[in-house]
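User: Please fill in residues for this 107-position structure.
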């Protein structure tokens, strides 16, 4: 259960010695009557990296666009995520109707 983390829209499990779990989604928002959750275009977007125990290793906010598809790196409603062997993240955006590659910056 990720009730306190986010509403997951996409999931990617990297089969590596680290078994990283990557999730894209948005904050969960209760319905005004308090019964259930709102499912609407979200006010925020996040990418999380977790370990198999569900502990958050990294939490990255994504810049939202006001008018899809927006500028490079802006998203509207991400619903797909993948990670390549170099650790770069690919996000599919249903409102922006595009996929984007995010290059991981290494120290």
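Assistant: Residues filled in for all 107 positions:
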């Amino acid at each position: 259960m990720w009730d306190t983390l986010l509403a997951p829209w996409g999931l990617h499990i990297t089969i590596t010695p680290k078994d990283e779990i990557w999730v894209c989604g948005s904050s969960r928002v209760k319905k005004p009557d308090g019964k259930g959750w709102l499912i609407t275009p979200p006010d925020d977007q996040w990418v999380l990296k977790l370990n198999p125990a569900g502990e958050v290793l990294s939490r990255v906010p994504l810049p939202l666009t006001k008018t899809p598809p927006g500028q490079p790196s802006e998203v509207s409603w991400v619903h797909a995520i993948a990670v390549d062997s170099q650790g770069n993240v690919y996000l599919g955006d249903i409102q922006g109707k595009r996929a984007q590659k995010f290059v991981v910056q290494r120290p």
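For context: The chain has a mean pLDDT of 86.
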